[in-house]
Amino acid sequence: MLGIIGGSGLGHFPDLVVERREVVRTPYGAPSAALVFGKLAQEAVVFLARHGLGHTIPPHRINYRANLWALREAGVEQVLAIATVGGIHADLAPGRFAVPDQLIDYTWGREMTYAEYGEESTVAHFDFSHPYCPTLRAHCLAALEAAGECFMARGTYGVTQGPRLETPAEIERMARDGADMVGMTGMPEAYLARELDLCYATLAASVNWAAGRNGSDEIHMGAIAEIQAGLVARMPNILTGIIQRLGST
Ligand code: HPA
After folding, report:
1. Residue 182 CB contacts under 8 Å (≥ 6 apart), including other chains
2. In terms of residue numbers, what domain contains 189?
3. Is 119 among the domain residues?
4. Which side of the chain, N or C, has fewer Cβ within a 10 Å radius?
5. CATH code for position 21
6. Ligand 1 mean position to 246 CA, how many Å?
7. CB of 228 closer than 6 A to ligand 1?
8. How many Å apart are CA 240 and CA 15, to the nearest integer?
C-alpha cells in the first residue's frame, strides 16, 4: 500500500475517497495527525498530514519517527513524500516540480534514528548512497511527464532547519555545495524510512525562488500561497498517474 505524506498546503486531499480515520499511537509518541485511509484512483492509500490537520506543527517539531512508524504499522510499503521547496537551480522556477535523487542534511537537533544506542544494542549503520527509492522515483517522473508538467528529473534537496527561511548568503553556500532546492522536512524523514526498510521518494514542488536566486529580493508569503494553490490543483492528476503506475507493477 502507498502512504502519502502531504506537506504545506496539502493537509487534506480533495480527490481522496475517505474510508476511515485512525488516531494511532507509536512507541515514539503521536504522529502529526490521524491516518486517513481511503482510495485514490481505486487504489488503497493512507494519507498523513505532515504539519498536522490545521498546519500547526513547524518542520523542526514534527515527530518524524512517529509518522513513519505509524505508516509502516498501517501496512504501508511505499511512501510518497510531497514537499514544497524553494528553487535554487535555474530550472526550478516557482510552479515547477522536481524528483530529487540526492540530499544534503543541514538540520540539527532532530530525532533522526530509531536506534536508541545503549549498552545492549550494537551500533547499526545503514547504506544511504541512494536516499530515494528508484522505482517510486521512476513512477513520479513518468506521471509528471504524462501530466505535461515542467520538472527536474533529478536534483539535490538541501534540508534546512527552519522555521525561518534562509539568507541569500546561506543559499549561495548551498548552491556551491550542490543543492538544487531547499526545504525543511526532507530529513530525517528520508533516513527514517530507510531504517524501516520503506521505499521512499519525494515529489518536490517549487513555491518560490530560494532567497536571492533569480534576482529575488524578498520572499513574499502571499506569492507562495498563490503558487501553492496552483500546484495543489494539479496534484490529484499527478498522484493518480503515480498510483496507477504503482498498481500495474
Ligand atoms: N526555504 C526553505 N524551505 C522552503 C522554501 C525555502 O525557500 N520554500 C518552501 N519551503
Report:
1. 85, 86, 88, 157, 158, 159, 160, 166, 171, 174, 210
2. 2-108+128-247
3. no
4. C
5. 3.40.50.1580
6. 29
7. no
8. 9
The closest of 201, 200, 211, 132 to 171, measured between CA atoms, is 211
CA distance 147 to 5: 21
pLDDT tens digits, 117-163: 665 666 678 999 999 999 999 999 999 999 999 999 999 999 999 99
Q: Is the CB of 165 under 6 A from ligand 1?
A: yes
CA distance 231 to 150: 12
In a domain, 122, yes or no: no
What is the pTM for the complete model shown? 0.95
3-state DSSP call for residue 144?
helix
Our answer on whether the CB atom of 182 is closer than 6 Å to any ligand 1 atom is: yes
Kindly give, in sequence order, each residue whose CB lies less than 8 Å from that of residue 111, ignoring residues fewer than 6 positions away. Answer: 28, 63, 64, 65, 188
Decide whether any atom of ligand 1 lies within 6 Å of the 207 Cβ.
Answer: yes
